[in-house]
C-alpha cells in the first residue's frame, strides 16, 4: 500500500464499512490520520449513500440497513448491522444524521452527538429540560464552520395551551440561544 497515492488510499478507505473503520485506524498512523480528517466522513457518507444504506431505529438501537426500493423480494436487507459499540449502550428513540454525525435522543431524555468515524460522543446539556415531544435537527453553518442543533421545544400546560420555542445549540461554544420567532404553524422536516 505504500506505493499508492494518498488520494487512492483515501478512495479505498472511504469504501470500508463503518464497522471496520476502528481496525483500519489501528493499522497505521497515516490511515488513522486520514480517517480523522474533516473531509473523510463526507466522502464516506457519499459512498454509503450509493449503497442505499439508511439509519433506522430497531429495538432502541441505531442500525445501518440496506434499503432497495426496486427489489421485489424485500425492501430491507435482513443483515442490518448495529452502528458501533457506543450506541449499543443507549436506548434511542430518535436519531438524526448530518455529514456522518448522529444526533441521538434517548429514552432517558438525553441528547448526544456521536461521531462514529472518530468514535467520539458529546453529551448536550439542555437550557431547559428535554421532552419527548421536542423536535431536533443537526446541520452545518458554513459561515462559522460549525455544527449546530435546532430544537423546537414544546410544552403543554394543564389547560391544553401550547407553548413553543426555537433554540439553536452551537457545538463550538457549547451554548444554547433562543431564536426570536413566533410561528403559528411549525414544522421541522
Automatic annotation (TrEMBL):
Gene3D superfamilies: 1.20.1280.50
SUPFAM superfamilies: F-box domain
Ranges for domain F-box: 4-44
InterPro entries assigned: F-box-assoc_dom_typ1, F-box-assoc_interact_dom, F-box-like_dom_sf, F-box_dom, SCF_F-box_component
Signal peptide range in chain numbering: none
NCBIfam families with a match to the protein in the record: F_box_assoc_1
Protein name: F-box domain-containing protein
Organism, scientific name: Microthlaspi erraticum
Amino acid at each position: 500500500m505504500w506505493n499508492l497515492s494518498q488520494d487512492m488510499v483515501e478512495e479505498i478507505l472511504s469504501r470500508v464499512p463503518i464497522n471496520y473503520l476502528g481496525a483500519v485506524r489501528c493499522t497505521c498512523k497515516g490511515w488513522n490520520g486520514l480517517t480523522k480528517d474533516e473531509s473523510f466522513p463526507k466522502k464516506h457518507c457519499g459512498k454509503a449513500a450509493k449503497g442505499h444504506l439508511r439509519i433506522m431505529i430497531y429495538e432502541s438501537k441505531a442500525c445501518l440497513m440496506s434499503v432497495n426500493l426496486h427489489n421485489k423480494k424485500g425492501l430491507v436487507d435482513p443483515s442490518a448491522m448495529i452502528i458501533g459499540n457506543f450506541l449499543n449502550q443507549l436506548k434511542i428513540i430518535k436519531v438524526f444524521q448530518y455529514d456522518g454525525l448522529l444526533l441521538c435522543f434517548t429514552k432517558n431524555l438525553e441528547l448526544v452527538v456521536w461521531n462514529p468515524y472518530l468514535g467520539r460522543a458529546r453529551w448536550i446539556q439542555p437550557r431547559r429540560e428535554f421532552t419527548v415531544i421536542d423536535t431536533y435537527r443537526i446541520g452545518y453553518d458554513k459561515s462559522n464552520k460549525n455544527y449546530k442543533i435546532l430544537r423546537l421545544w414544546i410544552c403543554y400546560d394543564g389547560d391544553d395551551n401550547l407553548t413553543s420555542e426555537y433554540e439553536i445549540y452551537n457545538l463550538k461554544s457549547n451554548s444554547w440561544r433562543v431564536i426570536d420567532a413566533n410561528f403559528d404553524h411549525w414544522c421541522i422536516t
